[in-house]
Structure formats: C-alpha cells, structure tokens
Amino acid sequence: MDNNSTGNILRYRGERRLNPIELERSYELKIACDNALSAINPNINIPQEAIDASIPMGYNQNVQPQLGYFANKSDHGRQNPDLANKLRQELDRIYSANQSTTPTTDEQSFTGAQNSIQNTPLAEWFKHAA
Amino acid sequence: MLRKIYGQIVGPSQQQARQEARRNLIRKEAIVGGQLFGSVPTGHRRQFFCLDQHTWVWHEDWKDKMGQEHSRTTRYNIRPNGVIKTSDGKNYHVISPSEARNLREAVVLYYNRVMKDLYGQTV
C-alpha cells in the first residue's frame, strides 16, 4: 500500500492513480452498485402473479409499488386473497430466515416480554398494585 | 450537492469542462458495458451504463434491411423497494424476479469490468 499525493487515499500496488473526475465517478459507481444490490435481493422469490397484479406506475405516478400495497389493495377490482396469502407466506419465510435467533411464536415472544418487564421498576409497581 | 458547491467555486467554464469529462467517461463505460452480454448482431450497437446513482440504461440501435434506423432505450430506476423499468420513456412497471436477478448480475459484472479495465483499480 502507498499513499497518493493527497495523503488521504490508500491504493494497492499496481492500481492506476485516478484524476479527480475519475475518482468522483468511481465513487458514484460504487454507490450505484450498492444501491442496486440492496434493492434486488436474490433470495426473494416474488410470485409472478404478484408482478402481474401490481399496478403499473403509469396508472398513478404517485403510487409507489410495494408488496404490502398491492397485496392488500382492494379497489380497481384487484382484490386477490390467495395472492395476499402467498405474499404473506413468502414474507414470513424471508423474515424467519433473517431473524432465526429471535423467538418465532407468540408464546415465546410473550414469555420474553414478561421476563423483560419483570426486571424493570414498572414490573415492581405492577406487583404492588395487584 | 458537492458538485453544485464546487461549480459555484470554480466557475461555469471549468464546470462545463468537468461535465464534459464525466460524459466522456460514461461513453467509454457504455462501450465496456455493451460487451458484457455476448456478441452483438451485425449492424447493431449496444450500450449499457450507469447514468447516476439510481439509474442504469440499456441502449441499442440498429438499421433494418430497408436501411431504416431503429433504437430502443430501456431505463432501470433503482428504488429502495424494487426496480422500475421504462422503455423509450413509457410503460413504467416493476421488473420480474428473473429480470431483477439478471440486472443484479449485470451491475456486478459492469462494476468489476469498468473498475478494472477503465480505471485500473483492484475490485
């Protein structure tokens, strides 16, 4: 590694020294790449029916297409309970895959909440109040 | 924002020169980007490039047997919740999962190739 003339940017050996415009553009590319990668999750498998049922942007420019939006949309004759269920199941699957360490059932969550409340002054107040 | 502030400091002529230099870089990137998807049919010109932090462009033009020129420009607008596609400035719609995966691969390939071949950087 060596420093370039500004002293701020480290470069690997063999890398070309970029002029300011190239440097700015390369940062822009990095951000653009990161934006695209975070917007497109390869693990999400949205059913094709959901895509077909989504409201085209040209229909209403103010509408931002979102899973929850078109899954629950009931006007324009687009209500589709089966599709909504499919989407919910897919979202649950994604959520559980990403949150595998957190409690997944209501009972576990409730127990956890009870345990956390028991350690607070508010829990003491409840105990005396009862 | 930084570009605006810089523009006010350096004046319009230098700012124009910078913008032109930036456009030249994007033109070179577009040529590299157009080669990512395999061979191009004879008479076709294909470009794929990153326009800004949220926009990727696929452009293709060609002449038919009658010598008439055709072109198609497809923009992919990256939103936090997905990708909106528009062809020739109309027909806005969310892209399909398979197209999203292809775009994702193209973006990664583009970044790696451009940074290596054009800017001489290790990715």
Describe the protein's architecture and organization.
The complex is a heterodimer of chains A (130) and B (123). With 130 residues, chain A is mainly alpha-helical. Chain A folds into two domains: 2-39, no CATH class; 48-55 and 62-129, no CATH class. Chain A is built from six helices and two strands. Chain A has helices spanning 20-39, 48-53, 67-72, 81-98, 106-118, 121-129, and strands at 2-3, 10-11. Chain A has a two-stranded antiparallel ribbon. Chain A starts with a strand and ends with a helix. Chain B has 123 residues and is α+β, with helices and mostly antiparallel strands. Chain B has one domain (29-118). The mean pLDDT of chain B is 87. The chains are: A mainly alpha (130), B alpha+beta (123).
- Secondary-structure-based class of chain B equals alpha+beta
Strand order of the largest sheet of chain B: 1-2-3-4-5
Q: How many domains of chain A, as an integer?
A: 2
For the largest sheet of chain A, list the strands in their spatial order. Answer: 1-2
Largest sheet of chain A: 2 strands, antiparallel
Assign a percent range to the helix content of chain B.
Answer: 40-55%
Integer count of domains of chain B: 1
Q: What's the total count of β strands of chain B?
A: 5
Strand residues, percent of chain B: 25-35%
Write down the secondary-structure element order of chain A: EEHHHHHH
Put simply, the count of helices of chain B is: 3
